[in-house]
Write a structure and sequence with these properties.
The chain is an all-alpha fold. The chain has helices spanning 8-28, 36-61. It has one domain (1-26, 37-57). 0% of the residues are buried. The mean pLDDT is 91. This is YfjT.
């Protein structure tokens, strides 16, 4: 993994890329075949994004 991101533009790019990954996963999930594991994976991805948003928010308030 890369190092910490302190630049606001890079932070926004990071978040955009992570959200794009979530959308890609959503697009590839077959609703007829989806299971609890798929939902858990999406929740974990969203939790990671939330954590990063909180970290970036702290950086922006300084």
């Amino acid at each position: 993994m890369g190092g910490p991101i302190h630049d606001k533009k890079e932070q926004m790019t990071y978040l955009q890329n992570r959200l794009d990954m979530v959308m890609t996963v959503l697009d590839t999930i077959d609703p007829e075949e989806a299971g609890v594991e798929d939902i858990d994976r999406l929740l974990a991805m969203l939790d990671d994004i939330e954590t990063k948003c909180q970290q970036f928010r702290h950086d922006w308030s300084e």
